[in-house]
Amino acid sequence: MLTRGDDYPLHQTPEPVAYSGADRNFYDRYFFNGYSPNGDLFFAAALGVYPQLNIMDASFCLVREGVQHNIRASKHLCSERLDLNVGPITLSIEEPLKTLRLQVSDDASGICADITFHARHAPVEEPRFTLRNSSRMMMDYTRMTQNGSWSGTISHGDQAITLDPTMHVGTRDRSWGIRPVGAGESQPASPERIPQFYWLWMPFNFDNFAAFFHSNEDERGLAWNQRGVIVPLASAAGDDPVEFARTGYTLDYASGNRRVSTLCVDYDSHDGPGMNVTPNGTLFYMSGLGYMHPQWGHGMDHGPLDTAYDTIDLSSDPAGDPLRLHVQALAKAVLSVDGQQHNGMGVIEQLFLGEHQPSGLSGLLDPWN
Fold it and tell me: How far apart are the first and last CA of the chain?
């Protein structure tokens, strides 16, 4: 089946672009976030394509005045991978790797948006993620991460917020490959084990550069995927990213749960740059974008077209709530480079399931059990 995508250099197999190999869990996904300097505004968006499942879904979330508003949409793909409109949400690629536009118009929530992401630097390619559960492939994908600024307007009810690129910044990522999507497997891998997943993902914006660190670790605390890099802005043409072969970190958890309270990244083993990170209290629940959501998980079939709207009260953080395990915490950072300190903002994305011996974490959710 030939589609508009076949006239673009996107093919990953010898077949038309409508076909994506043989794994039903193949996906292709966009993620965005943005925030104000004082943290009173936070928004996020995602759009996912699942060719083997014939599904495209999208979501837009807005955090304002103690409430997280979640707009969700899903449609049948009909093999057309470049029609990036799902109900009230539309993504436009204005200039690949540089400028992308999001439009939202949702009657149920009263939220409208016409906002544009402007890249601040070249994308950072993360190491390929490959993870098996025994002999079964769970993850095999590539992701790129890119910080940027935002322009445009977000409206909610009678309030309109104008985004200023000098103030409103954020991050986007693009990932594609294989990870669990759609309905669960009918026969899980044997023997069944307590899930284990330890995940930190930290993109930060500074005035003259961006800093990035992420780590995936097993139950022993050994990183099976990790990268630390400091990236110059596009305006600093000719400067290459500063790559660090060895990046370590230390962190403390908030009392009685698995939330990061403070974190320090050491970009080298001795006298290299260091970044101290402190959450400012703004939490965003990734379930608003479908992560770990029982009904609106990525790639779930809701028919030819369906939309939904719900809210999350942010005044409390219930212990062990499955919809609140995977979070992004807006945070301030102080980065020390060559004796100078630089102030920035970003997020600590965190999902800690199962055992992590260096942290003293055991069981599935201890100390939330």
Answer: 51
DSSP string, 293-338: -TTT-TT----SEEEEEEEEETT---TT-GGGSSEEEEEEEEEEET
d(CA 304, CA 73): 11
Smallest CA-to-CA distance from 136 within 178, 90, 85, 79 is with 178
Q: How many other C-beta atoms can be found within 10 angstroms of the C-beta atom of residue 32?
A: 22
Task: Output the six-digit token pair for 221.
Answer: 């605390």
SS3 string, 9-30, reads CCCCCCCCCCCCCCCCCEEEEE
Please state, in angstroms and rounded to a whole number, the distance separating the CA atoms of residues 29 and 47: 6
Residue 44 amino acid letter: A
Which residue ranges make up each domain of the chain?
4-183+194-359
Of the candidate CATH numbers 2.40.370.10, 1.10.287.110, 1.10.150.120, 1.10.10.60, the domain formed by 4-183+194-359 belongs to 2.40.370.10
Q: Taking every pair of C-alpha atoms in the chain, what is the biggest distance, in angstroms?
A: 59
- CA gap 131, 38 in Å, rounded: 38
At 147, list the tokens: 């910080």
For 209-238, the DSSP string reads EEEEEEEEE-TTS-EEEEEEEEEE-TTSTT
d(CA 221, CA 232): 30
- Position of tokens 């672009």? 17
pTM of whole model > 0.90? yes
pLDDT (tens digit, 0 to 9) for every residue of the chain, 369 residues total?
667 776 676 777 777 777 788 888 999 999 999 999 988 999 999 999 999 999 999 999 999 999 999 999 999 999 899 999 999 999 999 999 999 999 999 999 999 999 999 999 988 889 899 888 877 888 898 889 999 999 999 999 889 999 999 999 999 999 988 999 988 888 777 777 788 999 999 999 999 889 999 999 999 999 999 999 999 887 655 567 777 767 889 999 988 888 999 999 988 755 668 899 999 989 999 999 999 999 999 999 999 999 999 999 999 888 778 899 999 999 999 998 877 899 999 999 999 999 999 998 988 888 875
Paired sense of beta strands 209-217 and 197-205, if any: antiparallel
